[in-house]
Amino acid sequence: MSEPKGGAVSEPKGGAVNVPKGGAVSVPMVSAEGVRKRYGGHEVLCGVDLRIAPGEVCCLLGPSGSGKSTFLRCVNHLETVDGGSLRVDGALVGYVQRGDRLFELRPREVAARRREIGMVFQRFNLFPHLTALQNITEAPLRVLREPAGEVRERALALLERVGLADKAAAFPAQLSGGQQQRVAIARALAMRPKLMLFDEPTSALDPELVGDVLEVMRGLAADGMTMLVVTHEMGFAREVADTVAFLDGGRVVESGSPDEVLVNPRHERTRAFLSKVL
Amino acid sequence: MDPTSVRAVPVRHYGRWAGAAVLVVIAVLFFRALLDSPNLEPATIGQYLFKDYVLHGVGVTLLLTAVAMVLGTAGAVVLAVLRLSANPVLRGGAWAFIWFFRGTPLLVQIIFWGFLGALFPRITLSVPFVGTLFDQPTSVVVSGTTAAILALSLNEMAYAAEIVRGGILSVDRGQTEAAHALGMSPALTMRRIVLPQAMRVIIPPMGNETITMLKSTALVSVIAGHDLMTVVQGVYGNNYKVIPLLVVAALWYLALVSVLSVAQFFVERRFGRGFAAPRGGLR
C-alpha cells in the first residue's frame, strides 16, 4: 500500500488501551471510519463506517459487488485498506502509529494480530492433506506452540460441539460441504479468537446442509462471541443478529436492529434489495 | 433373444491381428540375430556383471544420483520461492540462474566444472583487514567427484525449480488465505500448508527427474567420475569387449530404474493422502 491518503487516520490518546468488559469505557471490537479500498481504478469501498461492540453479532447484507466480502477481508488484513481507519479492539489493522507517522506491520506482526480473529470462508478452505482433527490442531500447535495433549483435547471437544465427534480421522474430501464448514468453524475457534468473521459461510452449501452450519453459529452467538457475518440468510440475520448493516456501492446505506433494517427499511435501495431476496 | 445374456458374434479385428503378427515376427528375428551373434558373449556379461569394481561403480552412480537430487531439490525450492518473490532483483536473479543452467547442455556444464582450474587456477577467500582465510589450487578443492556433483546438482536445481514453482502455483489461493487467517506466518504457511499440497503435483515429474538423473550420471565419465559408466569404459578400453560391457551397464541402469519406479509409486501414494478418496471413502 502507498501512504494512507487524506490523513484520515488519527490516533486518539489512549485509543489502543484495552478496556476490560464492564469497564467504564468500552472499546469497540471493530471500528471502521471512512474505510476505502480500490482495485486499480475501481473503488470497491468508498467510505465504510461501522462499529461493532464486544459480544455483538453484526450481519452484513447487500447485493453482490457491494463490498461486503472485501470489507470483511480488510478486517483481518487479507486486503489492505487504502484510506480511512479500521481498528480491531482498538488497534489499527495492518499498521502501527508512532508519533504522527504510520508504519506498515511486518508479516510476523500481521500474523500475530490475525491469531485473535477467526475467519470462516465461503469455500471452507480446509487443508485437504490433513484430517479434520489435524486441521483444527495445526495452528494451535504450530502458531501458539501449545502442548499437544491439551490442543488435542480442545480440538476433540470442538468437534463434539459442532456435532462431528466421529469425524476426527476423516479427510476433508470424505466430508460433505456442511461437515467441512463445521470443521472450518471449529478450526477457527481452536485459536480462541475474540472476533469471528464469516464470509458467506452457507452460500456454497446444498440447501439441506445449511441448517447445521447456522445452528453452530447460533450457538456461538448465544455464547457471546463477537461475530461479523456476511450472509444472504435473512432468517438468520433477523433471528440472531444484534445489528444489521446494509451495504450498497461500497457504503453502509443503513444499519440498525434487524427490525429496523429488515422490517422497516428507511432507504429505497434497502427496500429494493429486500423485495428481491425475501 | 435371451434377455439375461447377450450372445453375439464379436467384431473381427483383422487389422490388429495382422499388426500383432508382424510385431511377433520382427521380435523373433531380432532376438535370434542377437543370440546368434558371436559378439554378444553372454559368458563375458555374466563374468563382469558382479565384479567388485563394477559394483563400486554402481555405488558411485547411486551416490551421485542421490546427492545431486537432494541438493538439486533443496536448491530448487529456494529458487522457486525466489522466482515468486515480490522483489524484482530476487525474481530476476532466480530467472537468470534457471535460464543459464537450462540453456546450456549438461555435458558442457560437466566438462566446465571438471576443468574449472583452467578458468580459476586457485580458489582464494580473503577478508579485508583479516587476511587470507583460504587459498588452495582449484584441482585440489574440486576433484572429479566434486565437479560431477556440482554440475549435476546445479543443472537439476534449474529444472526442478520450475517443477516446484508449478506445484506451488497449483495450490489454491484459498489455502494460503486460510493459513494466514489462522495467524500462520508466510514461511510456516509455505512449509506446512502449501508445499505438502504442492508435493502431489511435484512428485511425478520429480520421479522422472530422478530417473533421468540416474542415467545422466553416465555423462560424468568424461571427467573420470568413477561411476558405473566410467568403470565400464575403462574395462572395454583394455579388453575391447565393448558390447558385452555396455550390456552390463545397461542391465544395471535398467535394474536401478525399476527399483526407483517402485519407490515412486509409494511416495506418490503417501503425498496423495486426502486427495484420492481412500477405500470406502465418501463422494
UniProtKB/TrEMBL annotation, chain A:
Protein family (similarity comment): Belongs to the ABC transporter superfamily.
Lineage of producing organism: Bacteria, Bacillati, Actinomycetota, Actinomycetes, Micromonosporales
Domain ABC transporter: 30-274
One annotated GO molecular function: ATP hydrolysis activity
Catalyzed reaction equations: a polar amino acid(out) + ATP + H2O = a polar amino acid(in) + ADP + phosphate + H(+)
SUPFAM superfamilies per UniProt: P-loop containing nucleoside triphosphate hydrolases
Entry protein name: ABC-type polar-amino-acid transporter
Pfam families in UniProt: ABC_tran
Source species, domain of life: Bacteria
Keywords attached to this entry: ATP-binding, Nucleotide-binding, Transport
Gene3D superfamilies (alphabetical): P-loop containing nucleotide triphosphate hydrolases (3.40.50.300)
Matches recorded under InterPro entries: AAA+_ATPase, ABC_ATPase_HisP-typ, ABC_transporter-like_ATP-bd, ABC_transporter-like_CS, MetN_ABC_transporter-like, P-loop_NTPase
Species the sequence originates in: Dactylosporangium siamense
Coiled-coil annotated residue ranges, if any: none
Signal sequence segment: none
E.C. number: 7.4.2.1
Keyword Transport: yes
Automatic annotation (TrEMBL), chain B:
Record's keyword annotation contains Protease: no
Molecular function terms, GO-annotated: transmembrane transporter activity
Pfam families: BPD_transp_1
Bilayer disposition of the protein: Multi-pass membrane protein
InterPro entries for this protein: AA_ABC_transptr_permease_3TM (IPR010065), ArtM/GltK/GlnP/TcyL/YhdX-like (IPR043429), MetI-like (IPR000515), MetI-like_sf (IPR035906)
SUPFAM superfamilies recorded: MetI-like (SSF161098)
Ranges that cross the membrane: 17-35, 55-82, 94-120, 140-161, 242-267
One Gene Ontology term from the biological process aspect of the record: amino acid transport
Keyword tags: Amino-acid transport, Cell membrane, Membrane, Transmembrane, Transmembrane helix, Transport
Residue intervals of the ABC transmembrane type-1 domain: 58-264
Secretion signal, residue range per the UniProt entry: none
Subcellular location: Cell membrane
Domain of life: Bacteria
GO cellular component: ATP-binding cassette (ABC) transporter complex
Family as reported in the entry's similarity comment: Belongs to the binding-protein-dependent transport system permease family.
Stated name of the protein: Polar amino acid ABC transporter permease
